[in-house]
């Protein structure tokens, strides 16, 4: 009692059912914004500093408690520092302030000593873009709407 294997049925296709082939693939819609932050894992280092500061803080009580301001300041810096990029503008937020500017004001980008990018504005001012690295240039190029060239684009 053996059955002969059957071919699976193929659905019938009609030329009218097929989607017209376009010469260019559709681009997915851009997100409203991209946010570049310092990794929250670095808060583990803050916890380590907090634990190591505890004997010093309680050994010199009550003024030694001021040592806890160091890990508190580090945590504030990690959580607050970010760069938010939208198709219209760039918003930079640091621990001490913030700055916003439009893409039209960006003349070029420059690599910082800390391997973060700096935006060189048409006025000559340089603004550090915290947490934005060279590897993020393709995403910046897409969000800029072509104002910045994509370094990964093949010619």
UniProtKB/TrEMBL annotation:
Bias (Low complexity): 1-10
Keyword Transmembrane helix: yes
Sorted UniProt keywords: Membrane, Transmembrane, Transmembrane helix
Keyword field contains Membrane: yes
InterPro entries attached to this UniProt entry: CFP-6_PH (IPR019692)
Residue ranges of every copy of the Low molecular weight protein antigen 6 PH domain listed in the record: 80-150
Listed name of the protein: Low molecular weight protein antigen 6 PH domain-containing protein
């Amino acid at each position: 009692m053996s059955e002969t294997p059957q071919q699976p049925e193929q659905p019938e296709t009609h030329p009218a059912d097929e989607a017209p082939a376009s010469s260019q693939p559709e681009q997915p819609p851009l997100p409203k914004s991209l946010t570049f932050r310092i990794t929250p894992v670095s808060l583990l280092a803050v916890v380590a500093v907090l634990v190591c500061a505890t004997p010093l803080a309680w050994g010199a009580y009550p003024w030694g408690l001021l040592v806890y301001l160091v890990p508190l300041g580090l945590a504030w810096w990690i959580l607050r520092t970010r760069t938010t990029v939208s198709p219209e503008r760039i918003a930079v937020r640091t621990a001490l302030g913030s700055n916003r500017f439009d893409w039209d004001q960006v003349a070029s980008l420059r690599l910082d000593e800390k391997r973060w990018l700096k935006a060189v504005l048409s006025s000559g001012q340089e603004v550090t873009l915290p947490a934005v690295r060279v590897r993020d240039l393709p995403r910046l190029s897409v969000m800029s709407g072509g104002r910045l060239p994509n370094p990964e684009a093949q010619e």
